[in-house]
Amino acid sequence: MKFRPLVASVTLVTAATLILSGCAGQSGNANSGGSGAAGATLTLGSVSNITSFDPAQAHLGHQMPIYQAAYDTLILREPDGTLSPMLATEWKYNADNTVLTVDLRDDVTFSDGAKFDAEAAKANLDHFLEANGPDANQAKSVESVAVVDEDTIDITLSAADPAMTYYLSQAPGLMGSPKALGSDGIKTAPIGSGPYVLDPASSVNGSQFTFTKNDKYWNKDLQKYGKVVFKILTDTTARANAAVSGQVDAVLLDPTTTQQADKAGLKKTAYPVDWQGLLLFDRGGAVAPELEDVRVRQAINYALDRKTMLEELQHGEGEATAQVFGKTTDAYIPALDDAYPYDPAKAKQLLADAGYPDGFTISLPMLPGTESILAMVKQQLADVGITVDLATSPQATYVSDIIAGKFPVAWFSIFQGEPWVAIRQMITTDAAYNPFKTTDPGLQADIDAVQTGGEESGKLAQKVNQYVTDEAWFAPFYRVNQLYYTNPKKVTVVPQVQQAVPNLYNYTPAS
Amino acid sequence: MLTFILKRLLAGVTVLIAISVATFFLLYFSSSNIARNILGEFATQDQIVAKEHELGLDQPLFSRFLQWAGRAVTGDLGTAWITNQPVAQSLALRLPVTLTLVIVSIIGIAIIATLIGIAAAVQRGWIDRVVQVAAVIGEAIPEFVLAIALVTIFAIQLGWFPATSSIQPGLLDAAWIASLTLPVIAIVLNGLTSSAQQIRSAVIAQLEKDYVRTLRSRGIPEPVILFKHVLRSAAPAGLTVLSLRFIGMLGGVVIIEQIFALPGMGALAVQSTTLGDTPLVMGVVLYTVIIVIIVNLLVDLANGWLNPKVRVS
């Protein structure tokens, strides 16, 4: 033949790329090269993008490490969940747990030169309360913040909040420069006192954020890298490919992609975070009258073959359970994991006792991606006589529909946090995942005890756990393992309890 | 010629306005949960009302459109609701990525497909049959399957190319070229054979015309007939095929961008549409429509240049 397509194409593609990329360039100064900062580079694959660098608009969880690169929090949460000093050196409640006095460091400056002090901390908390960010509910109990002296603030609460110190290690605790708070600039370029500063020239929102070492950082122990790069990889396959081919040092994967990562010799760290299962919202029988009877709700629990579900749906990555409180919390009661062993005969008996010997029909919304989970649920409930109607529900409206109480029952995956956090997210009458606002005087008394229990509140939450399990408010399947993969040649990581991904401080270069 | 261009531009602006109006009003239905999506599941009703006010969602739809359009005319596309970035800035970063991908791919397809198409038309025989069969297979195998196969072999097994993008838009470097190679090959492989097949048909149609016989009878060398006369007459058909493919690619690269984590327009369009981020979606739509209009205009001009008859009609 007269021509060789392959050679021609390669030459052409290369040539055209060269020309085009020249024309395309409009941003990007050439100052992104070596900044001179010594130390290794950490490249993390992030599951989700950041919406705003304004600390008050932070939604932690998957985005935690990105904010931690730029911002310090008042309190540091250790890998095991204990709270340690960070920008706050000490904190103490008054007698009725409604005023939290916080002592602050006096040797910290923000990257724009502003000083961190009591005024700055107050400005941040006030900004958080006003800004109406995604995690604003965490500061719901904060009534006011007062400057006591240069390095002390008083946080006054409208009612006791046992999770307040935990929240100060989360979004409400992120401290940005008071000069930049509320400006447009801080939305796209963070200004904090954190261990790293954003390099805007090497960052593209939605694709990659590059941070370089903050040379003036006050705590060198937390600053183990010269450069930290976050690659936003929302697609699981892309994430796995990036990890396997060595483009990123650590990522969160799911059971569909782990085989590839295992084969490539990546190190797996598995730890349970979320629980998945059915939320039996309509305990008052407003929409589905059958659910008002506790025996029906228990029957649903007995009908589930959790061990098989775990094997089939999660490749065994997790722990079967019938309780909604996490293993790493004080509210956890080991025996409740087996509160409802698989027993279809008992389920049928309970349904018959409740007056439904021939079963009944309930409808369940189906979120895209949960088809196989719900197919199995449908099968298992059909085995005891309950017919499940599955209706596809679009992702964009699923959560808002649930919160609005449009469904009597729904599948969900819920974060297992500190007891008070968990209670407020799914058990109190104002909880998002208690849309029908069901409650009971006894339960309310137990909840109040947790709220005002101070140091004891975690233990007191066991009574709440026992109640909602006995009353079958939920039908949990299992706690799902987070499957975190790291390249053992490059990085060592300590997992973080109750958190989607480890804190940024938990990574160290592999020696 | 000038009136021809002006007419085309006028038509383009009309299309642009029509599509903007339609998109804006259609988005109204998908953005009903936008405040909740931004604020998360624990937001209270008060928070949501405040957010909706901040975004202007409590105003009548029509006045919202007028406000948006009034600013858009001056080039201000507003700020994205979800990422808080100016829309124009987001697009300026992402457009080059998608355009580079699409333009490089279309040039690759154009040249290779033309060569293969001519070869198949002139030589017939086995080349022709291979092209015919490959066209069917090529169209049948989706881009993403090719892309995944390429990633598995060349990025993961052999490690020759990065598995996901290392793109720094605006910076010309080896990393960008390496990042683009696999996606471009996947797109080219997918579009190549069917385009070649269509060019082949166009060339064959010309070869059967009387003028070719006349030229041959005068003893004009075969390569001159082929490249000077036949190709010129067959080009309009080829251009149309390629322009359609180009326009199709603007939407089709979404999956490729996803697989290779390329920060292009596709990913932006998908994210912003599912979340109902009106300003961003409108920006993506406007830019895409403008590109389509420009491409069509260029193809018309090229056709006019190649074939004077078009200009007259």
N to C succession of SSEs of chain B: HHHHHHHHHHHHH
Task: Specify the structural class of chain B.
Answer: mainly alpha
Mean of residue pLDDT of chain B?
83
Count of individual helical segments of chain B: 13
Largest sheet of chain A: 5 strands, antiparallel
Which two chains have the most extensive interface, and how many residues on each? Answer: A-B, 67 and 70 residues
Structure annotation, total helices of chain A: 15
State the shape of chain B.
globular
Query: What value does the average pLDDT of chain A take?
Result: 88
Q: How much beta of chain B, percentage-wise?
A: under 5%
Classification by helices and strands of chain A:
alpha+beta
Instruction: Please state the overall shape of chain A, judged from the principal axes of the Cα atoms.
Output: globular
**Straight-line N-to-C gap of chain A:** 55 Å
Give the beta-strand count of chain A: 21
Q: pLDDT under 50 segments of chain A (min length 5)?
A: 1-37
The stretches of 5 or more residues of chain B where confidence is low (pLDDT under 50) are none
How are the SSEs placed, and which strands pair?
The complex is a heterodimer of chains A (511) and B (313).
Chain A: H1 5-24, E1 41-46, H2 64-70, E2 72-73, E3 75-77, E4 83-85, E5 88-93, E6 99-104, H3 118-131, E7 142-149, E8 152-157, H4 164-167, E9 174-175, H5 185-188, E10 196-198, E11 208-213, E12 227-232, H6 236-244, E13 250-253, H7 258-263, E14 267-279, H8 294-303, H9 306-314, E15 318-320, H10 344-353, E16 361-366, H11 371-383, E17 387-392, H12 395-403, E18 410-415, H13 419-426, H14 441-451, H15 457-470, E19 474-486, E20 491-493, E21 507-509
Parallel strand pairs in A: 1-12, 16-17
Antiparallel strand pairs in A: 2-9, 3-4, 5-6, 6-8, 7-8, 10-11, 11-12, 13-19, 14-18, 14-19, 15-19, 20-21
Helix pairs in contact in A: 8-10, 14-15
Chain B: H1 2-30, H2 34-39, H3 45-55, H4 61-73, H5 87-123, H6 125-140, H7 143-157, H8 174-207, H9 210-217, H10 222-259, H11 265-275, H12 278-306, H13 308-312
